[in-house]
Amino acid sequence: MTKERTVLSPTTILKAALLAVLLPVASAAQATELVYVPTNPSFGGNPGNGGYLLNNAAASNKHKAPSDDFGFEQESALDRFSSNLQSQLLNDLLSESLTSGDNNQTLDANGFTVNINKNNGQLIVTITDKETGATSQIQLSNNN
Length: 144
What we know:
alpha+beta; 4-stranded antiparallel sheet; 3 helices
């Protein structure tokens, strides 16, 4: 039994050596590190994406503002100012009546009557609706 030896030509050896050297280099060039780049400009993304993202969000928004079916009406700026002014004036009148020496006072305010009764460190405020006659009472006591 004789063993046959395979003899490789120098070009085959050179090709194999080049392939062994270039194969890891080629695969290393293809494999890169993954890097996250945000899309949203709020998180560091490109500011040019802002309008596009906003338009997409608005187009896909299925929620609508409530209609007046629920009885909600938008109050005008004048109505809000008038309401705030009325609250401030009532607050000032109530504060003034609490610091005065009178034990019983009555205030009429926009359909309501407010009775203030001070007695032995106890304050009783009774609010009466003139139209319906419904009353609400607030009692405060000074227990020092």
